[in-house]
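S1.2 Input.
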Amino acid sequence: MFKLPAELTIAKAEAFKQILMEYVADHDSIVIDDSEVEKIDTIGVQLLIAMITYLISINKNIEWQCKAEIIKESVIKLGINEPILSQYFDNE
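S1.3 Output.
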């Protein structure tokens, strides 16, 4: 399971990318856990879009149903309508 960090921000972007790349290299199926995300900025949302796009491009299986309200709220606030990301949003 790949656990997203508590802060998905510009200050954490490089470390996030490094950890993600190491994890992806060792796993064919990526289960994303967003339960600890408490803070996300525009760069964090862009990182999520880039992450999903990258995982799809290298044919990784992705399991994620976004549960972190902060992620959904940020995407809405930013006016981002990106199907590649929003398909993982929990639409209960």
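S1.4 Remarks. DSSP finds four helices and five strands in the chain.
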